[in-house]
Write a structure and sequence with these properties.
The chain is an alpha+beta fold and about 140 residues long. It has one helix spanning about 10-30; strands at about 35-40, 45-50, 60-65, 70-75, 95-100, 115, 120-125. InterPro entries: A-crystallin/Hsp20_dom (IPR002068), CS_dom (IPR007052), HSP20-like_chaperone (IPR008978), Small_HSP (IPR031107).
Length: about 140
Amino acid sequence: MALVPWNPFRDMDNIGREMSSFFDFPSKIFGGFSSPRVDVYQTEEDVVVKAEIPGVSKDDLNLYIDENTVRLTGQTKRENELKDENAYRTERYYGSFSRTIPLPVEVKSEQAKAEYKDGILSITVPKVEPSKIKSRKIDIQ
């Protein structure tokens, strides 16, 4: 029998996975999606968010950014109304969606740029330069 190092946070990882799957439960049953999938990464100067939003007009998207959060809302519209007797299969999601994305660092929201092309929304926001922390000696009383 091999010895395995004890990790006090292993159970926390399991709880996190269970909670995540619990909140995905309604979309698995009802077949829709509640929010777009995103990638978030940093470069030297910027934070970049890429959101997958196929089939949505940029006029149906709203984007809000503050110092450390991106909020994306929108609506997927049906091109034409299908009658149940004519539909063979309907799997696509139609309706409103929303996604709030916490950013890893504080950003300059007033300098944000966004581009929507081929169903991908790319958001680039410059990072706030971290202030240099100066240490000084404090006399103890």
